[in-house]
Amino acid sequence: MSRRRLLSSLLVFAGVVLLGAAGLHYFRGYQAQSAGRQEWEKSRAPAVAATPDVTAAAVAPRENPGISAPAPAAETPTDTTSYPYGRPVARLRIPSAEIDCIVFGGDDQATLEKGPGHIPGTEMPGEETSRKNCVITAHRDSHFRHLGWLRKGHRIELETPAGETLYRVVSREIVKPDAVRVLQPTKNPRLTLITCYPFNYIGAAPERLVVVAEPVVRHHS
Do residues 119 and 71 make contact, with C-beta atoms less than 8 angstroms apart? Predict the structure, then answer.
């Protein structure tokens, strides 16, 4: 076999491997969302216990779509023994961005493989504390791939154990990965969504897209 043909075969093989890895990533995300949705619906039903957490399979390292600096300490630090790492904590619906996902507790690699993750240390979905800023992050090439479609005035629905809250987008900005200010507690309630930016960047993206929304009305269960 000639050197050129060998090189061509190796490139084709590498392409097949990359496509297979990408396909496996999306399949895992689909499975986790399906299982998470079932668990979420069961947990919302009266007198029905939640099903055990679905353990994520080992995945290759990926970029963190959130802010790299840790969230500032809250008045009452998150209790790591009771925080629902890897478990459904909310359902996020954004019609204008074709997003309808279960949100899981945590922003670690395994959790973000499942879907959008709540950043520990920020206000939990459905809570009413002095922190007020609920921050959710997800990958730009999967569950938040259409987050860039959002513009001021677009509607966001967040279903939580406390009920459903309707939000409207009030701002969007591009920041550096160390812009810890977007995780800080806020004076008024808000929902902050974060993903890597630009969306078509090859490799670890150098910036973050931050979309901020404020509540319009809340329907309590």
Answer: yes
